[in-house]
Amino acid sequence: MKKGSLPTLSEVARKAGVGNTTVSRVINGGERVSPETLARVQKVIAALGYRPNQAARVLKGHRTRTIGMIVPSLADPFFSSCAEAVQAVARANDSLLIVTATQNDPHKDLENMKMLVSHRVDGLLIAPANSKSDAIRDLAARISIPVVTLDRPILNSTIPAVLTDNYQGARCATEHLIEHGCKRIVCLTGESTLFTIQERMRGYRAAVEEAGLTCTINTSVKDYKSAEYAIESLLASAHQPDALLTLKNSTTIFAFEVLQKLNIPVPQQLALIGFDDFELATTLRPAVSVIQQPVEDIGRVAAELLFERFEDGARAGTKSRSGKRPVTLENCLVRRSSCGCPAHS
Amino acid sequence: MKKGSLPTLSEVARKAGVGNTTVSRVINGGERVSPETLARVQKVIAALGYRPNQAARVLKGHRTRTIGMIVPSLADPFFSSCAEAVQAVARANDSLLIVTATQNDPHKDLENMKMLVSHRVDGLLIAPANSKSDAIRDLAARISIPVVTLDRPILNSTIPAVLTDNYQGARCATEHLIEHGCKRIVCLTGESTLFTIQERMRGYRAAVEEAGLTCTINTSVKDYKSAEYAIESLLASAHQPDALLTLKNSTTIFAFEVLQKLNIPVPQQLALIGFDDFELATTLRPAVSVIQQPVEDIGRVAAELLFERFEDGARAGTKSRSGKRPVTLENCLVRRSSCGCPAHS
DNA sequence: CTGTTAGCGCATTCAC
DNA sequence: GTGAATGCGCTAACAG
């Protein structure tokens, strides 16, 4: 073995005094090889520190045993938890996970897809920045490898999606607030262009209108300052709210901080429910009630769906028909104190 | 193009009526190709949706333009933030990032290394579960690709490491507590086998002993219950502590929750500083003072070091001599309220 | 049970 | 400027 480069199969074969095929058989399970040869070859492999070169296998038309995952950000606990689950499934299927981040830039979605295709990943998991992107749909249709979206779908496409029931979740949260007697529930969205947020808005609106209440949606919260401004304005208005529904994590936290700063009694003066759970929600005072998404499940199910398709593809040839409708996972309302429920434990 | 399989370079060549070489030139920058041919080939490439097959390039002895990263868990904000930074550097170097998780199982460290080598990653970033592992050191020495460790080193090896100054950080936190007049500072470690934790213990011990105070280390905290037991015992003892130093994130949070539950005035009765910052540290009441690690920097610097080595390798042939000593990043004390400092802003 | 052979898709000589 | 030929490391027929 030349220094600086890894040993190859033929080197192993030579040193072991056998043919290439035999070595190949050994590294692929050792079937049809006599015990002595097997042992000898394995010894040489160990001695040389030989590792089969995946690239060569791939070239022979085999799977790369890698999958790609495209998410907005790995630093986001939601997606990093998804990624962890995906990684676990990949590992269970003897595959590796390649992750890329887009910062919600739709352009990078495409760029990353192309790059991953170039590396011949066996399949792709995407949380697309733009659910209305025809470009992604079209590209996905061409690359001839399975694609599954998670958290957000690609609309007008047949790409399988694993989502949570954002509509129902927000609706349920709103109804819960109404049960607590809240009459003027304001919805703080944070950036409102994402599919998930829009679904949640729909859910909020449905619940509010059904109860004959007024729908008030504020999309201006981007950081602490904008939250402060928004909430102060709300409190100063004639139509003072008695509850807040925040549609994403950061919005929930900004709102909480503002309420804490202003010394607003929560939930007495203003109840609060946030969409999406976060680590210290139970530690804050009051503990924050939230709609909790099954984060690990999203990743796990999406990855499982992807690996299923590999099997299907191997068997059936073309596309599997396994459900064109998205898989929708249930969210659940976690009642802590900020909504008005009694504190427990 | 046969359905179910991606188009190849020769298919492009055929449809464009040119030779393979020409297509190859086009996809590699388009040098030495006449404008017309260039345009024609590019059109065919677009029409076919052709993407060069990385595997084939690799087989020709080129880099895979992938790097591997082995971390305990992606769900841990610390490592996912590192991973995000690494990913960004990889991307800037036109490379992809493959991540694997070990759950701190030393055996999986090795397993993952082998798998990644098989995929011919250009380099490896590892946060090893066991800093004393000779197996990792030996394997790293054989695989002939650059390896850099982060957060934790491999002791007794020349593998470059990017660490933070755990010793100094804990020492600094302890000294700060002492400046606040604390006399009986108890250190809660949480699992104490990790290299980082042991360094922090050293720092705590050094500061405490230097001040002529008693060193009390409790390694029993694993969850809320054990934290409750530990803290209640401490408070019931004759030698009642007046400050807590918690050496890892989860320990800090368990401790905080217990103190909150027991209604212990913080910092009046018991001051608290935690090692490692966390998202809601400023939102809690009191806001938790912490030693903050430059998380993104760890990932960024480690990745940059890795890519530097590729250049070096290409130039120098053998190993680069760029610093055998670990790169140590500074931590910083973030003074919030729980240590006794006045609340600000 | 084992070896020989022929490509997989591409980059790279070297001629034209 | 361009193309034909060669081989990277490996697997999959086929022989033996």
Number of E-state strands of chain A: 12
- Spans of at least 5 consecutive residues with low confidence of chain A: 315-321
Strand content of chain A: 5-15%
> What order do the strands of the largest sheet of chain A run in, or round the barrel if closed?
2-1-3-4-5-11
CATH topology assignment of the largest domain in chain A = Rossmann fold
Query: Would you tell me the structural class of the helices and strands of chain A?
Result: alpha/beta
Form type of chain A: elongated
Could you walk me through the main structural features you see in this protein, from its secondary elements to its overall organization?
Chain A has helices at 9-16, 20-27, 35-48, 54-59, 77-92, 106-118, 134-142, 166-179, 195-210, 224-236, 249-261, 295-316, and strands at residues 66-71, 96-101, 123-126, 147-150, 161-164, 185-188, 216-218, 243-246, 271-275, 289-292, 327-329, 332-334. The first copy, chain A, has a 6-stranded parallel β-sheet with strand order 2-1-3-4-5-11, with helices on both faces. Chain A has a 6-stranded mixed β-sheet with strand order 7-6-8-9-10-12, sandwiched between helices. Chain A has 3 domains: 9-52, lambda repressor-like DNA-binding domains (434 Repressor (Amino-terminal Domain)); 66-159 and 295-329, Rossmann fold (3-Layer(aba) Sandwich); 166-293, Rossmann fold (3-Layer(aba) Sandwich), CATH 3.40.50. Residues 315-321 of chain A have low confidence and may be disordered. In chain A, helix 9 (195-210) links the parallel strand 6 and strand 7 (216-218). Chain A has 12 helices and 12 strands. Chain A is α/β, with parallel strands linked by helices. In chain A, 44% of the residues lie in helices and 14% in strands. Chains A and B meet through helix 4, helix 5, strand 2, helix 6 and helix 11 of A and helix 4, helix 5, strand 2, helix 6 and helix 11 of B. Chain B binds a DNA duplex (16 and 16 nucleotides) through helix 1, helix 2 and helix 4.
